[in-house]
Amino acid sequence: MLSSTTSTPDHSLDLARQAMALVTEVGDDEIIAWTADRACSAAQRPSTLEERTEWARIGQEAAARSGELLAEYHANGMAQSCLLERGLLDEFDRMLRRRMVLVDQIGHPTMRWDATDAEVNRAAIAGELETAERLNEESVQIGLAIGGPDAMLRYGASLFQLRDMQGRFPEVLELIAGAARDTPNIAALRAGHALCLARAGRPDEARKVVAADLADGFASVQSDRIWTTSMGVFADLVTTLEARDAAATLYDLIVPYADQVPTTFNNTYEVFHYYLGRLAALLGRYDEAEAHLARAHEIHEAMPAPYFLARTRVAWADLLLAHGDPADHDRARQLATQARDEAATRGFALVESDATRLLARLDG
After folding, report:
1. CB atoms within 10 A of CB 168
2. For a FRET experiment, which of 41, 50, 166, 172 has its CA 20 to 30 Å from that of 1?
3. Which of 321, 308, 253, 309 is nearest to 281 (CA)?
């Protein structure tokens, strides 16, 4: 019932809530665990994070009581997703280690594929790009071997993020353009295609790709499990294009979820405070922008997430240089230097270039 492909997002959420209310009366731990897993999946969107966190807890406890490894594996996965959205990586890592043990014990290749994708994502968050790339190659081979219909899509999504982090986005421009054409219902791919074009100095083409999204105020972007990552990529795009009307719309859409980290479990992006800071800066709301970027810095430093932190430092330094008091320039220099040095060490080429340009402006 919960996996019906014909259900609307709101209907799926209603069904998930009904199922969770009913299953607690059944008293069968294995059924509770499986229902919690399906309910979390059906309800995955930013507005339900607290509910899903509670359902995942119920599912984990029921799975543990049942002693069923398969139920524990699935309960573990939904709990991990909630932890990622909250930026709680220590607990996520503990559960990922347990998940890999379960994969070895159960031995199902689909589960190894999913778990390997989680490792790709985790390595990218840690800024370990070579490890992430190696794991992504392993993952796609597993997916292709078992006939996974979305094996290349998942591989491409991770590759796009890694190449973007490396400043090598032109290499994946045709790949993501083709994926966006083949799956026009996935807004994140459309936004990613446009972002690649914008960064390649082709802003008019970028605007054309997302013209419908800009025109309808992103209303056609489905409220589902990839809504947060779609909004993150769109926010990156509209600030790159300096599209102020779209920036105001996006700000209002994502500000209720400012503390959430956009993730699909396969890909994770900067906490929404980072995007809100950049959007607010574009809109000339500089105090709000600094407050958001300061909070993003705090969250990314605590995770820790080196690439996200370096990008946040660049955005904050840029804000201080362009709109702060001259007395803030020392702080801007410190932030830009930290970002440049970290980026140089880890191979974040685009961040290193942006930070270097900021430092040249400060010294000019």
Report:
1. 14
2. 50
3. 321
pLDDT digits (tens, 9 = 90+) for 284-339: 999 999 999 999 999 999 999 999 999 999 999 999 999 878 889 999 999 999 99
Q: Give this prediction's pTM.
A: 0.94
Q: Which residues span the domain enclosing 41? A: 1-107
Least-confidence region, from 3-12, 259-268, 269-278, 337-346: 3-12
DSSP secondary structure string, 89-107?
HHHHHHHHHHHHHHHHHH-
Half-sphere exposure (CA, 13 Å, Cβ side) for 315?
A: 30
Is 80 exceeded by the pLDDT of residue 364?
A: no
Q: What is the rounded average pLDDT of the residues 194-198?
A: 95
The residue to which tokens 């972007």 are assigned = 221
Domain count within the chain: 4
Contact 221, 227 (CB under 8 A): yes
Same domain, 167 and 191: no
Does residue 103 sit within a domain? Answer: yes
Rounded to whole angstroms, the Cα distance separating 355 from 341 reads: 9
What per-residue string of b and e applies to 124-154 under the rule 16 or more CB within 10 Å gives b? bbbbebeebbebbebbbebbeeeebeebbbb
Looking at the structure, tell me whether residues 25 and 102 fall in a common domain: yes
Handedness of CA 254, 256, 261, 266 (dihedral sign): negative
Q: What average pLDDT is seen over the chain?
A: 94
Gap between the Cα atoms of 329 and 342, Å rounded: 20
Q: Are residue 158 and residue 230 in the same domain, yes or no?
A: no
CB neighbourhood size of 184 (10 A):
9
Q: Could you report the per-residue pLDDT of 51-73, keeping only the tens digit for each? A: 999 999 999 999 999 999 999 99
Burial 233-266 (b: 16+ CB within 10 A, else e): bbbbbbbbbebeebbbbbbebbbebbebbbbbbb
